[in-house]
Amino acid sequence: SVATPSRLNAIKSVYGLLVAQNLIKIEAADNDTSSSVFEMDGFISNSNYVAKKTTMVLFINDRLVECTVLKRAIEVVYVATLPKASKPFIYMSVILPPEHVDVNVHPTKREVSLLNQEVIVEKIQSVVESMLRKSNESRTFQEQAVEASPSVPPVTKNDLYPSPSPSGSKSQKVAVHKIVRTDSSDPAGRLHAYLYNNTQKHLEKDSMLTAVRSSVRQRRNLKGTAYLTSIQELINEIDSKCHSGLLDIVRECTYVGMADDVFALLQHNTQLILANVVNLSKELMYQQALRRFAHFNAIQLSEPAPLHELIMLALKEEDLDIESNENDDLKEKIAEMNTQLLKQKAEMLEEYFCIFIDSDGN
């Protein structure tokens, strides 16, 4: 085992002084033969460390390897513990019985899997979280010298264009990617407040833009609210069950990132919230469909899609036995019957859902 100062010196030599200055020593161990046997020591970055990419140096039994499960578990802790956290730097040395390491996960033998992997990862994850929370209690900030006459004036909503400096020389424009939106109430689509445009060009396009917006509004609100009683009842049912607190969270939250395939991390004020985006998306689409009923935007396909083929594709997708061709005749009949039914309902589908079906069933 290499001494701690030597390790820090090695990290400083390879990754730089800034990394070495922002590391926390970390240790974890277990000797329960019924659950897990391992020893771990190393360093993780603290709350002052800033990086765009995760760096993980992992040694298992003194061999440099990768363990994706462990890496992801630690990344999740950083996202959940530090608001708007940067990616971590991780150095770990894990010692465990050689027979508990499976190196046959990947052809290069670089990726490994561990016996009782879930238990080991959970214990390490717990220690990382504990150390990170202690680190987050105190933050240090580097001082930066500021010139008396800044070359770049601050940007405000009332002053979107840079003004000349007192000396009369032209000031530099702030790069667009350095302008940060800080107001969650400002709609995501309103990018114009964060871009520099030529004033003259902006005025020339203004009248044309107004005309386009007006025509879009007229098309979308042709009949005002839904005129069908059934639709209005469904909308009223949603409104009666609406939770104002959750509505505020969804309306004003900031998306942080995905925790896994189902859950996303959202930040609202000082709270970090785990949201099931699968269920949230389904509910959102359902409510959108009700509120935009008969006002949907149409998308024109370059080549109209034949209904018969689309239905056949759907039927084959549901068929568990792909190799079997016994039910092809039945599928053809179902496709033909449904194509005729949709053609009969073409007028209603166009009016209510903006789905246009021609006489050929396209």
From TrEMBL:
Localization annotation: Nucleus
Region of interest (Disordered), residue spans: 139-172
GO term, biological process aspect, one: mismatch repair
Domain DNA mismatch repair protein S5 stretches: 11-133
Annotated Gene Ontology cellular component terms: MutLalpha complex
An example molecular function term from Gene Ontology annotations: ATP binding
InterPro entries attached to this UniProt entry: DNA_mismatch_S5_2-like, Mlh1_C, MutL/Mlh/Pms-like, Ribosomal_Su5_D2-typ_SF, Ribsml_uS5_D2-typ_fold_subgr
Source species, domain of life: Eukaryota
Principal place of residence: nucleus
Coiled coil: 313-347
Pfam families xref list: DNA_mis_repair, Mlh1_C
Keywords for the protein's UniProt record, in alphabetical order: Coiled coil, DNA damage, DNA repair, Nucleus
Alphabetical list of PANTHER family matching this protein: DNA MISMATCH REPAIR PROTEIN MLH, PMS, MUTL, DNA MISMATCH REPAIR PROTEIN MLH1
Family, as annotated: Belongs to the DNA mismatch repair MutL/HexB family.
Descriptive protein name: MutL-like protein 1
Organism: Hibiscus syriacus
